[in-house]
Amino acid sequence: MYLLNPGTFQIRVNYGNRPVAASAPLSEHEKQDRALAIARLLEPKKVVGFDKIRVGRANDGGYVHVDDFAGVGKALSFGISDDASWDLDIAKRDIPVHQFDHTIEKGPIGHPLLNFYKQRVAAVDGPAAVSLDTVAGRLLSDCERAILKVDIEGDEWSVFFTASLETLGKFSQIACEFHGFDQAGDPNWSDRSIAALRKLRAVFEVVHVHGNNAWPFFNIGNVVLPSLIEITFANRNYYEFAESNEVFPTALDQPNLPDRPDMRLGCFKF
Fold first, then answer.
1. What pLDDT was estimated at residue 8?
2. Which of 33, 38, 133, 135 has its CA 20 to 30 A from that of 145?
């Protein structure tokens, strides 16, 4: 997550300064087709031979992972704000964590294996921004296997859209909060989001989903989705997968806002 000023939050997706043309409004059937195309890219599978584990604190800030960190040499954490509980849990496994957040001056927790960079992770490099490819080139050149956590308030779409498959393949697991699914019926948003998810799915299977209850469900052409979904991906080069009927949320999940009920996703199959 980023530290945001109250009242200024909005989802923004910037795909490396690519122009976005206006398009005609879609019918409800067309909106449903787009929402289903997105949702079907997120249907979870089971990892064969491994359980799952929660990393980070209860409620907002924790993520569910495959319980397998053997051979992981480094971790990247994009979006920190005031919570580094995920980072600390990873560091306690003797894995160095490189933290990126342009909205704070320093990391909220001190630890010898936590390394903080006041930089924004974005689609392309700039005076105050750095791309995922550049971060991986600088920090992961000597690392065969890494993990990634991302919560960057909508920038995740453009970061993954522009990342190379070679860079994505360096990660055995990615846990990311994806924003903006209420826009799934919008052609500009959905075209680019589908492209980003297809790129991720070329390397990974989805193994866990959790709706963030800070925002409500949205009905897009009678397909009901949370606006914010925490998604865990596992790399096909490291794991085998099977069909799953797991019901979400699971016992490992926590409502992001504890004073509200968690979001019931069922098996998340479409």
1. 33
2. 38
Structure-block tokens of residue 241: 């997968």
pLDDT tens digits, residue range 131-150?
999 999 999 999 999 999 99
CA distances from 239 to 67, 75, 150, 206 (A): 12, 19, 21, 12
How far is 133 from 183, CA to CA, in rounded Å?
Answer: 27
Distance CA 107, CA 97 (A): 11
Cα–Cα nearest to 96, from 81, 76, 80, 120: 76
CA count, 13 A, side-chain hemisphere, 79? 22
Q: What is the pLDDT of residues 71-95, one digit of tens each?
A: 999 999 999 999 999 999 999 999 9
Q: Hey, which CATH number is domain 47-242, 1.10.10, 3.40.50, 3.30.300, 3.40.630?
A: 3.40.50
Q: Which residue do the tokens 């957040």 mark?
A: 101
